[in-house]
Amino acid sequence: MSYTINPDTLSSLLYPVSYRNIEPSAVVQQQVDVYVGGSLAGSFLAAKTGTSGSSAVFDTNIQSFLYSDVAPVTGTKSTLFGTLNTYSLSTNTDVIKSIYCVAKNQTLDSSGFLVTSTAPQYSATAYVIPSQFYANEYDLGDFYQPSANPFKFLTTNNQDRRCNAAGNLYLSFVGKGVNSAQFEFWTNAGASSVTIVDLVNATANNDLYTISVGVANIFNTTAIFHAGNFPTNPDTYSYYEVSVGSYSGSYTQLSEKIQINIEPNCSDDIELHWFGKYGGAESYQFRGLIQDSQTANGDIINLSQPWNLAASPKANSYDKTIIKTNQRVNKSKQIKCNVSHEDAEYIASLFYSPEVYIIENNQYVNVTIANADIRTNDNRATDIELSFEIIYPNKPVAQL
Prior knowledge:
This protein is mostly beta strands. The protein has helices at 215-218, 341-351, and strands spanning 3-5, 10-12, 18-24, 29-36, 39-47, 50-52, 55-61, 89-91, 97-108, 114-116, 121-122, 126-129, 161-164, 170-174, 180-187, 192-198, 208-212, 225-227, 237-247, 251-253, 258-263, 269-275, 281-287, 289-302, 322-339, 356-360, 363-374, 384-391.
């Protein structure tokens, strides 16, 4: 008998990823092979978990096979974070993986020996991402069509966003049914124009994609267009709206629409990008008090005074009698600023992200967040005050 229950088409690896197989009572256990991304990730023997009438029930959870194969991973920048200051569309094969199981029944022969069946049973193929469930639901149906229409981007911030001319922003989405993106630009005078971008992908696939949508990513850059093009000067525009969908002679919107408000450049802002709680790229430009600091740490050791009986003087003031070893330099930034209520809840996801980058000299720099403090809601305040510290990696220094 084949598999009777499979994971959802799109499942979260943060929760059980379970299959069910109902077999004749003579089946004592199953050999289960787990395939992640099309390759064998491991095998195990599944014991019977219950009965249904006279049949044996096998419930198998393969969640543990997924963590090492799905981003984020140590030592590698996730592909969610696209090219800076130009348009890009990245296929995030490290963030989404296909999974399926192959089971072979094992029974006892008349001599009591274990016999493995030569007839494999294949489960349906599902896909997993490292995502929390949306709101109070226990599935990811809000993030792909046709389960949701329009479906949501893989972001915590579904509200309007702000971005200046130097800013990079990214939106991640599940690509099933999607082959194009639409940008509608609104000038300061209130006129609009539409640009439709060809994503050059197959609409039937279940890949995960990240598209760059910041002002620095699209103005005065190029792509493959179905209609229109990207404007050159953001100063003449007040905002634009972004969605993804299907194009076949005309554009059909399938995703939600995100509005991006264009703001003037500011010398006291920083740009952070992080791996979001729904498995997508997140981005934000912080404005406020920014203080840089460095601390130097090490182990101080007192040494005995060298003493030379034949010399005059017998010791010197410059003799090394105290040294510092295991030296390390820690660089950090302290950020204090005020944000809107909507942005406060969004920024909270930065504080527990496993992968964070700051943009410096047009490069991604790996950092982490510490000492974060934010109220995600305050019914007596018009905005929310937050503070946090950006910690840089230790830099090597000369050692004794």
